[in-house]
Design a protein that fits this description.
The complex is a heterodimer. By secondary structure, chain A is mainly α. In chain A, 90% of the residues lie in helices and 0% in strands. Chain A is elongated, with a radius of gyration of 17 Å. Chain A has one domain. In chain A, 22% of the residues are buried. Chain B is an all-alpha fold. Helix content of chain B is 92%, strand content 0%. In chain B, helix 2 packs antiparallel against helix 3 and helix 3 runs antiparallel to helix 4. Chain B starts with a helix and ends with a helix. The mean pLDDT of chain B is 89. Classes of the chains: A mainly alpha, B mainly alpha. Chains A and B meet through helix 1 and helix 2 of A and helix 1, helix 2 and helix 3 of B.
Chain lengths: 67, 128
Amino acid sequence: MSTNIDLIFKIAGVGILTAVLHTLLKHAGKEEQAQLATLAGVAIVLMWVIELLGHLFSQVKSVFKLF
Amino acid sequence: MEIAQIVGFGLIAAVLAVVLRQEKPELALLLSIGAGVLLFLMVLTKIGAVINVLRDLSVRANVNLLYLGTILKIVGIAYIADFGAQLCRDAGESALASKIEFAAKVLILVLAIPIVMAVLDTLMNILS
């Protein structure tokens, strides 16, 4: 359970951090780097979520005997 | 009190998603996917226990295990497809969501065909 809520907090933290970074870089006049920071944040979170989705699908497969 | 855990988890995820949605909608979507998957995983083990009981009952009642297996597969497909479709609809891609639902319907139909054929065979046996 604690690991579960940890992941949500991690995702929200990355999101808020990228939002702040995006704003900062944009105000500093570095549009491209702001875009790259956003992209990096999305990629990191996507890795976690895809891992989780794979776990879910394998679990559903084993519970419902799908293959 | 597992329901308290689940409701609390959902509320926290909802608040964080709302905070993120203003700044980064794509990350808010990923967060809601993650929260949905985790909530689903929490109850999946319970569903597994119920299904084991159902399988046990069907063995005791001498029901052909093929039918129960097919029904369980259909339920699994429906769960996964509904999950994906709702996430797509949340992200504002209702066209994709309806395609996912269509695909799920086709797959369920494919799984259901053997049962339909079995019913028809039985019917023919009774008639002849």
